[in-house]
Amino acid sequence: MKDKISALMDGELDRIDVADTISQIKESEELRNEWSTYHLIGDVLRQPEMSLPDITLNIRNEVDIDPIALTPDIPKEKNNQIFAFAIAASMVAAVAAVTWMSGQTMERPLTDETSLQAVAPTVTIDPVLAQKEETKTEKLVLQDPASIRINDYMFVHGEFTAIRGVSPYMRTVARRP
Amino acid sequence: MGDREIDQQLVERAQRGDKQAFDLLVIKYQRRLVRLLSQFIRDSAEVEDIAQETFIKAYKSLSSFRGDSAFYTWLYRIGINAAKNFLVAQKRRASNASSNFDIEDAENFEEGGQLRELATPESELISKQIAQTVSQALNELPEELRTAITLREIEGLSYEEIASVMNCPTGTIRSRIFRAREVISVKLQSVTEISKDKRW
Amino acid sequence: MSYKQIIKNSALILLVAPFSGFVLPSFAEDSSGISTGTPGGLQSIVNASASKEAQVWLQRIVDAPRKLNYTGIFVYSSDGHMETSRVVHMVNNEGEFERIEVLDGPPREVIRNNNEVKRYFPDRKTLVTEKRGLQKFFPALLPKPLSNLNNSYIVKKVGRERISDYECQVIVLEAKDRMRYSQKLWVDVATGLLLKAAVMERSQVVEQFVFTQIEIDSEIDKELLKPGYVTKSTEVNITNPVISGTVKGELGWEIKNLPSGFSKINEVRRIFAGKTTPVGHITLSDGLAAVSVFIRPVTKNDPLGPHESYPQQGAINIYARTVGKNVVTTIGEVPRVTVVQIGNSVKNYKVKWTK
Questions:
Q1: Where does the pLDDT of residue A14 fall: very low under 50, low under 70, confident under 90, or very high at 90 and above?
Q2: Which among A111, A149, A173 has the least Cβ separation from residue C108?
Q3: Which of A14, A83, A93 sits opposite B81 (nearest CB)?
Q4: Does any CB of chain A come closer than 8 Å to the CB of residue C151?
Q5: Are C315 and C290 in contact (CB under 8 A)?
Q6: Which residues pair with residue C102 across a beta bridge?
Q7: Ordered DSSP codes for C9-56
């Protein structure tokens, strides 16, 4: 049986055996220990110098105390857009990124001599994000011309750094549009 | 079948209410997640807290995981976002803090230290012993077992790929990897006996 | 350094660069190899060869993206902010292709196909495309990066670490003075790809990027290089944004008081999206860090103040200053004191802005 656990964790167990093996692990403390030990061995091999935390206990406590009602039927449609926003919406970090962005625009409003004419200044609010986090500002703020100019400069500048990391644009893309 | 499909199976079970299936995923990914978060957050106790928080968040939002990405990708994103929140909050605390260390702060700091399981010398020792035992056991393995498990765990090759490298049937590889794990596992038992209370 | 000196050094570098397919350790080695006041001749030689070895690694970092396919997720972090992005990078006999997509916050992406770079701005629903035309993307005539590094940095190998399941050699470039940041680099041993990098001010990490997942050297699905934005209301196309290699007319701009180790590596005039007036762009480098100076005429709506401070962004500092009828903006991944010194040293020599 243990050899099935070894194959299972590598994703190499025959399909017909998988469901049964998982059930067996659930019911046997010994088999669960094997799953645990085999993974420990892998973790140690990959990162021998690392200390070996075990956070499973606390998580088990937390999950038991807080049972959640899971819908038995998993909806079949895969809407990537909603999926992405759903994850983003539940993560406060998405909001943090946007507030950060708006916080970094320059304070003085400047009008540039020739700005991008065709776009009327608009403020778009992502509806899903807005729903979830009302207290924070999540508007996609139209950048003022000074910021636009600085970003253009940074973009061009990035090409001259000797060690560019991922690419010349790493800093500028990560920063903001 | 693939790593990803196993995860998918476990996730689907967990989504249907099988908590133990989720537990198996926690065991599988806990240290990888901790390793990832250590890239951004220095304090190992904080890293563990955030890793815990990540798994719990993942469990609570399991129903929204549709399998568009690999489970671990989804888990890692949650982890990174949790780390980000932590850093933002930390920065806010730092900027709000006065230059004089408040008595109140000191008291809270003390208390927090006791509640949390910091890396005690003892647990560090156990970690070291485990690492040493694994390393020694690995070296004592017959060469074909050592190669098989190394290619699997460190290089991440599939059984078929390893079979191709070692020029033998896939079934033999499966057997070699299992035997390697068994041998190391037996040697570990003497170390983990010490910290038995179902830690490992 | 006088302006003439700068030109002379640049010309020298330009001459030497095409002939060396490699970093020029010997160029800089003399200044760090055998020096007085150090343990002894032999030790210095040992130091020099260790440094030379480290520089070989640095050259691998520079070369790796030119030869490899890779795709992965990386996290860029600074000042407590973090952002996750995906990169897809492909090299074949048609050239180099890349797409970076920010996964957090508003969608931002950059797509590069050889000499063409596209940026999409979601707030303005605008796509800006720049085609560089004759000027190659990594201009072959620029001096090789990493030359003169030893003047400003102590370069050393410091052991190995694993990043995202890849074994990496760690290299440290320690700044010799406070005019620049130190850097710590994690390089994949097998391919030379940079998997993690940290910019540091003494021992404080100022900014960092790290791959949390990466796949090197596998087939790239070309679909992944296609843009993610569908709707765009405005398209701006710029062809040959770089107008000329020197300012037409007189000598132009001089940077008198360069910080130690910095020299000019490029000087052009160029057009930016949506603006008709060209902007002068001078680039300086100490071998690792680059500082750009942008010079443009004042417009009637610019503030009249003598100089502007912008908040530091990660490792980037920005300092703007009015010089006569021009605004001089200095940007670089260097400490504030350095952009200020450079920005304050920019001097005008009867510039004529002819279109």
A1: confident
A2: A173
A3: A93
A4: no
A5: no
A6: C85, C108
A7: HHHHHHHHGGG-SS--HHHHHHHHSS-TTSS-HHHHHHHHHHHHHHHH
Residue among A150, A164, A174 minimizing CB distance to C318: A150
Highest mean pLDDT among A137-146, C21-30, C334-343: C334-343
Give the global pTM.
Answer: 0.55
Q: Say how far apart CA C171 and CA C349 lie, in whole Å.
A: 42
| CB within 8 Å: C292 and A160 | yes
For B53-80, how does the pLDDT look when each residue is reduced to its tens digit (9 = 90+)?
999 999 999 988 887 788 888 898 899 8
Cα(A98)–Cα(B109) distance, rounded to whole angstroms?
A: 32
Nearest to A132 by CA among A95, A78, A83: A95
Contact yes or no for A140/A126 (Cβ under 8 A): yes
Say whether residue C191 is in contact with chain A using an 8 A CB cutoff. Answer: no
Kindly calculate the radius of gyration of chain A based on its CA atoms and give it in whole angstroms.
25
Which residue type, as a one-letter code, is found at position C60?
Answer: R
Q: Which long-range contacts (CB under 8 A, 24 or more apart) does B158-164 make?
A: B158/A10, B158/A11, B158/A12, B158/B2, B159/A10, B159/A12
Counting one residue from chain A and one from chain B, the pairs whose CB atoms sit within 8 A come to 192
- The answer for C 104-123 residues in CB contact with A (under 8 A) is 104-106, 108-110, 112, 119-123
Name C77's bridge partners: C82, C208
Name the pairing type of β-strands C263-270 and C290-297.
Answer: unpaired
The sign of the CA dihedral B31, C89, C266, C20 is positive
- The pLDDT confidence band at residue C51, using thresholds 50, 70 and 90, is confident
Ordered DSSP codes for B128-158: HHHHHHHHHHHHHS-HHHHHHHHHHHTS---
User: Per residue in C179-222, pLDDT tens?
Assistant: 999 999 999 999 999 999 999 988 888 989 899 999 998 888 88
> Looking at the partner chain, which of A47, A101, A141 has a beta carbon nearest the beta carbon of C162?
A47
What does the pLDDT look like over C122-173, one tens digit per residue?
667 778 888 765 443 333 334 455 667 888 899 888 999 999 889 999 999 9
Tell me which amino acid residue B95 is. S
C76 touches chain A (CB under 8 A): yes
The answer to whether the Cα torsion of B3, B8, B10, B11 is positive or negative is positive
For residue B119, the SS3 value is coil
Would the CB atoms of B83 and C82 count as touching at under 8 Å? yes
User: What is the SS3 assignment for B54?
Assistant: helix
User: Cβ–Cβ contacts within 10 Å for residue B172, how many?
Assistant: 16
Q: State the Rg of chain C over Cα.
A: 21
Q: Which long-range contacts (CB under 8 A, 24 or more apart) does A24-29 make?
A: A25/B20, A25/B24, A26/B18, A26/B20, A26/B21
Relative to beta strand C126-131, strand C234-239 is parallel
**Sheet bearing C70-78, strands edge to edge:** C153-163, C166-175, C182-188, C194-201, C204-216, C70-78, C81-92, C95-102, C108-113, C116-121, C126-131, C234-239
Helix residue ranges, H only, chain B: 3-15, 19-37, 44-60, 71-96, 103-115, 121-140, 143-153, 159-166, 170-192
The number of angstroms, rounded, from the C-alpha of A176 to the middle of its chain's C-alpha atoms is 18
Give start and end residues of each alpha helix (H) in chain A: 2-9, 15-27, 29-46, 56-65, 80-90, 92-103, 127-132, 145-157, 170-175
In the numeric block, which tokens belong to residue C144? 């090789």
Compute the distance between CA of residue B197 and CA of residue B185 in angstroms, rounded to an integer: 17
Tell me if C347 sits within 8 A of C256, measured CB to CB.
Answer: yes
Residue A38 has pLDDT above 90, yes or no: yes
The nearest CA of chain B is from the CA of C217 a distance in Å of 15
- Whole-complex ipTM: 0.78
Task: Give the confidence band of C249 by pLDDT, cuts at 50, 70, 90.
Answer: very low
Using a CB–CB cutoff of 8 Å, tell me whether C165 touches chain B. Answer: yes
CA distance to partner chain C, nearest, from residue B197 (Å): 31
